[in-house]
Amino acid sequence: MKIVITGGAGFIGCNFVRMMVNKYPDYEIKVLDNLSYAGSLDNLKDISDKIEFIKGDITNKEAVENSLKDADAVIHFAAESHVDNSIENPENFVKTNVFGTYNLLECARKNDIDKFLHISTDETYGSIERGSFKETDRLDPASPYSASKAGSDLLVSAYHTTYGLNTLITRSSNNFGPYQYPEKLIPVLIKNAIYNNPLPIYGDGLNVRDWIFVEDNCSGVDVVFHKGEIGEVYNIGGGNEKTNLEITKLILKELNKPEELITFVKDRLGHDRRYSIDTNKTKALGWEPKWEFEDALKYTVKWYLENKWFWE
Q1: Active-site residue numbers?
Q2: Maximum alpha-carbon separation in the chain
């Protein structure tokens, strides 16, 4: 099988590519990535001889067409994903996440691609006080980032309904693990704590997220790709709901740093209070997360300590 993986040099993408080349050595993997600030060929250096890499942007029609030639499937990770950046500059998020996805869908349709898997986020559902969102629940995004992802989700679904494109969508909770660019919560906290710098926490620190170790998300995407029902959406979550303050204290404890480093800052605009997703539909395909949260967090802290080349 010939698979194009967009965004394969980024955080989740590189972990997924690494898993795929090791698990399916007969697959031909082509990575399309524009190598923005959050993506790097160094993230793939240990498997560079097992993949084909194309530097290109999904907003560029020619780059997309060249990449998808002779492909059987597309797994679409490429996205602008940092909420704070979307608040400051929403235009980039609409261009990449909506128009870029449109480019891929059009090319996939015209090239009769067998399967198109779109990677999305639980943030498209918005905040929930109690219970957990199911795949059939209404989308209610709060930030320009989550709105752009919701728009791309709906485009993907429309291409299935209108054109019969064989699509799948996964919506995962907050990922963490190796190769995450140090702008997201956990790597920022680890980096700052290592150097005894203040750990900035929005608002009262009680915003809740469900956390999933990146390898568990990748295995979930793999299961959905191979076993998911065409046209369907699948939630992938770790079942680890933690407040930002809880996460911060766990990292400080692991690094033996004082809680006095915690610094509360002005809350993010439109900050969702709690995310939670129901993953029973994905588990029915035979998937389960393997990592215990505390073990995965310790592993992640250790990885950042041992791989300062990645973030210094």
Answers
A1: 122-123, 145
A2: 57
- Are 137 and 220 found together in one domain? yes
| 106, 107, 109, 115: CA torsion to nearest 10 | -120
Give the position of tokens 């485009």.
Answer: 155
Q: How many domains would you assign to the chain?
A: 2
Q: Which distant-in-sequence residues (6+ apart) come within 8 Å of 191 by Cβ?
A: 182, 197, 304, 311
**Cα 154 to Cα 259: distance, rounded to the nearest angstrom:** 43
User: What is the token pair recorded at 116?
Assistant: 């198109």
CATH of the domain at 52: 3.40.50.720
Amino acid 76: pLDDT: 98
- Give the position of tokens 């797994």: 75
* 198 lies in the same domain as 228: no
Tell me which amino acid residue 208 is: V
Question: What is the spatial distance between Cα 177 and Cα 43, in angstroms, rounded to a whole number?
Answer: 13
Kindly report, residue by residue over 205-222, the tens digit of the pLDDT: 999 999 999 999 999 999
Based on the domain organization, do 145 and 90 belong to the same domain?
yes
CB of 118 within 8 A of CB of 168?
A: yes
117 and 146 together in one domain: yes
Q: Do 119 and 193 fall into the same domain? A: no
List all residues 6 or more positions away from 243 whose beta carbon is below 8 Å from its beta carbon: 205, 206, 207, 208
Domain that holds residue 110: 2-176+212-239+278-291
Phi, psi of 112 (to 5 degrees): 55, 45
State the pLDDT confidence band at 84, using cuts at 50, 70 and 90: confident
